[in-house]
Amino acid sequence: MDIQSLLDDIAGSVTPHIGQGEVAGYIPELGAVSAGQFGISVATGDGEVFSSGDSDVPFSIQSISKVFALALVLAGDGDRIWKRVFREPSGNPFNSLVQLEHEDGIPRNPFINAGALVVTDRLLSIADNPHTAVRDLLRTESGNGSIGIDAVVAESEARNNNRNASLAHFLASCGNLDNPVEDVLDAYVSQCSLAMSCADLAVASSFLARNGLAADGSAVLSPAQTKRINAVMLTCGTYDAAGEFAYRVGLPGKSGVGGGIIAVVPNNCTICVWSPGLGRSGNSVAGVAALDEFTTRTGWSIF
Length: 303
Ligand code: GLN
Prior knowledge:
The protein has 13 helices and 8 strands. Helix 3 crosses helix 5 and helix 3 packs across helix 6. By secondary structure, the chain is an alpha+beta fold. It has helices at 3-13, 28-31, 65-77, 98-102, 113-126, 133-142, 151-159, 162-173, 181-192, 198-204, 223-236, 242-248, 285-298; strands at residues 39-44, 49-53, 59-60, 148-149, 194-196, 253-255, 260-265, 269-274. The strands form 2 sheets. A 5-stranded antiparallel beta sheet has the order 2-1-8-7-6. The chain has a 3-stranded antiparallel beta sheet with strand order 3-5-4. Helix content is 44%, strand content 11%. The protein binds glutamine.
């Protein structure tokens, strides 16, 4: 498999999709990002990285951070989190309020915003350095010690965070937050505002394709935990488009409203794509098209 030529081909063939959709204007600073960008990187299990397009441009990882927060909570605290958050697809937008009230403050899954707020709350309770735990995991797993928060995005998100504040207050009213709402929102915004490139994110995700093992052979997660995180990514990682994503791409994946998506080919490689234009459910239009083409041409899908 000539992965480099394949990625160059894909970067060419998705051109009509680049700029399609809408950038995430509800976070003003994300709305200012140029939509005409596209990057793709593949990190193989044996440590090679192949890239094409704008693969070295840092972008706001947004909800992709939810995978790493969940990994830290599962690693540190085992299955306890599953008493406070379900693991079923929501079929609703990622920031929806309605289901949470119907279901008594137990979010449908850890990848919608309500579920991620509960995971973040647990991380605040168990991590040694809760405000930097996700950043530190990403630094370690990518090998890039300069990864950090985009302060302008963080500020923009914090100033326009009424929806997440509503979710957090409702969770607190149901007794499903242990820490003060403001602390949880602050930590959540910090992890969403981390900036990374496709190349760094593909490498940082590699443990998900290696049964939980980091590049140096140490365990980030057990094989069983890795299986479960990948399963939740498949069923819930792209929100109310998870069925369509499974149909088109056929891999566990996690998107963010910065336009990034990570996808995992178990025992083989991880892929990160980025292009800021989002479809109706908040997933990168060109990113999904690129992943569709990648798995269709390679046959590297879990199906
Ligand atoms: N920070 C974003 C929000 O809370 C994350 C959403 C996303 O990437 N889907 O709205």
